[in-house]
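Need tokens for this chain, all 332 residues.
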Amino acid sequence: MQRLIFAVIVSFAIAMVLGPIVIPWLKRMKFGQTVYELGPQSHKVKQGIPTMGGIIFAVPMVVVPLAFSFPDSRWDFLPIALLSMVGFGLVGFVDDFIKIKMKRSLGLTPMQKIIPQLVLSVALSVWAYNSPSVGSKLIIPFTSIEWDLGWWYIPVMTFILVGTVNSANLLDGLDGLLAGCSLLDFVTMALICMSLWMGASQGGNEGNLMIFCGSAVGALLGFLRFNKHPAGVFMGDVGSFVIGGALVGVTMLTRLSLLLPIIALAMMMSSISDIIQIGYFKLTHGKRVFKMAPLHHHFELSGMKETSIVFMYMAVTAVLCIITLLAFVPFG
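Here are the structure tokens for all 332 residues:
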């Protein structure tokens, strides 16, 4: 427990120190946000605000777990969690860099973005399938049932990995929205990993994932100091991909990927609303279900304040996370 607390505190401190260093550097490098032309008009004021600020929380999310990991444990899980986080984060970094250099709202083409994601996702899925610590089974939430997917595990987990990372990317549309919601997700997973580790330790693997999630909590808390409304920096695709990769990596390693539609409902709804909007638009030759997708932009264009939307999303996420904890963490 002490390691978890220290991981949160140190990650928070590193993010708070990095913020005043990274943000001016991003400004000097002219790494400013290019606002999507068809986006909400209220976002025009965000043009030029520094982006790629995900570096602020990505650094402590790498350094702190390595520093506070249990030295006597097997290193099965931590390197894979870091690989998932850093691997997807690099795709986001390249996407951001192209956007900035080309001065446009779109960076990599869809194919250029999805191919490396698929390669990494397949590699992670194959590793998990062949790992004696993970295997082909998924735990069904709120039950003691383990669903054995057999070789279907690989395509299913590949879909979950790619889907979660891109859902996180879509949720990153309002000041503090993705950072705030994912902060609650990582708190939840840290407590679940602690419960698993204390209840039936597998060589310290869950303990190291607990530290990993704790470092994400502290780092995102520090980042929110600079990303809350009105944001002084945006995380960029590098940040959203780091968050998505880290969260889905942890759920994959704990065999709790089926929790994602619950604790990460905000991310899932961003993808679902986007798919519905695009599909309906094509089928009806121009009609729309939402005023704008993803869903948080629909609420924004319906007259809700940006801060109210963020609070609503975080409140719903908090309730769902508490319900999830009741099933996995013993109280009393």
